[in-house]
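Below sits my pick:
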Amino acid sequence: MNALRRWARLALGMRSFVRTGQMGDGRESACADHVETHAAPGDIDAALSAIDGFAVREAVLVNVGVEKGALLDAAVRRADPALALELGTYCGYSALRIARAAPSARVLSVEFSAANAEVARRIWTHAGVADRVTCVVGTLGDGGRTLDSLAGEHGVGPGSVDLLFIDHDNSAYLSDLLSIEQRGWLHRGSLVVADNVRIPGAPEYRRYMREHEGTRWHTVEHKTHVEYQSLLPDLVLESEYLVGS
């Protein structure tokens, strides 16, 4: 399938994606099948390579991708997290990158689609990281249920989040960050990485970081491209929390 057809299929699937978290054509489950077929069990690198290959040759996936994934990797290494929290699991790709860059970290990934959670768990199990990467089905905007679950069932508490990766509903970037701030889960030096700040865009989140530059946050804006192509520009924001102990 040529690149134009793959991107056309992606555009057609976006209405389903916004509603359900999946494109509606089975590509997410097919990606898990592809990883299980083509990657050696227990090999994170092979699993990531299989996902990238599927996204390039079979059907475009809305994960962080290779170019922006390298920025995430570098941030993870700087944070050296004991606990990483991710908002937006999709097929589990970015959680795999976090687990690879921080082999001793525990990774919690929040995903509103139970179907995506199942795909991600299949991939994590095949890659050998299911013992330290957990998907929590829910959303931080559900009135506190998922936040309470993260705290009560998964041990997230004051100052415990060393790295936060935000890659879900762009309209919820700022509100979800503020919910985490209000819970006191960040500490001085925690890193927050936000994908897709230009496309689809998170203007309120970007404005918040600019307004609090040097007081609550120090932010670097990385100019990059939308995943799996080199024409559409994007922004990844990497922000260091400056308050707390």
